[in-house]
Amino acid sequence: MLRMSLLCLLLETPAVQAANHTVTALSGPFRFEPASLTIQAGDTVTFVNGGGFHNVVSDPGAIATFRCANGCDGAGGNGDLSNTAWSAVVTFPDAGTAGYHCEAHGGPGTGMAGTITVIDDVLFADDFEGPG
To answer: Angle at the Cα of 122 (from 117 to 125), degrees rounded to 5?
Structure first.
């Protein structure tokens, strides 16, 4: 009975909408702010250039592959390094980790680099135990 009640409650809960987060590429010192970010599966991250000659590139093995600056390669944009006021939106549909870096000022896990951790916090009725 408890499982059925929880299942009904979960089914009546409105769907959570995806959120957008912002990561800014900065100079002096070269960095991304925030450098570490935890988001929900389905959320997007808008990478923006806050000043300097930058781009943002996913590390090998990241859960999402991207190379962005004035948009993203393969999505109608150009991921080449740029000093313009660029922005690019990347969607993270699945849970996992995506390391990223600037090609001019960092490398996988070093220098101007960051990490996005994507979690999937969907609870199912089977996640709960009844009394007893």
So the answer is: 150
The count of residues in the chain is: 132
Mean pLDDT of the 65-84 span: 96
Question: Could you give the angle at the alpha carbon of 102 between the alpha carbons of 65 and 49, nearest 5°?
Answer: 100
Walk across the sheet containing 36-40 and list its strands.
36-40, 110-119, 96-107, 56-58, 67-69, 71-72
Cβ-in-10-Å burial (0-12, 13-18, 19+) of 65 comes to middle
- DSSP 3-state of 90: strand
Inter-residue contact 31 to 100 (CB < 8 Å): no
Residue 68 near residue 102 (C-beta atoms within 8 A): no
Cβ distance 103 to 88 under 8 Å? no
pTM above 0.85, yes or no: no
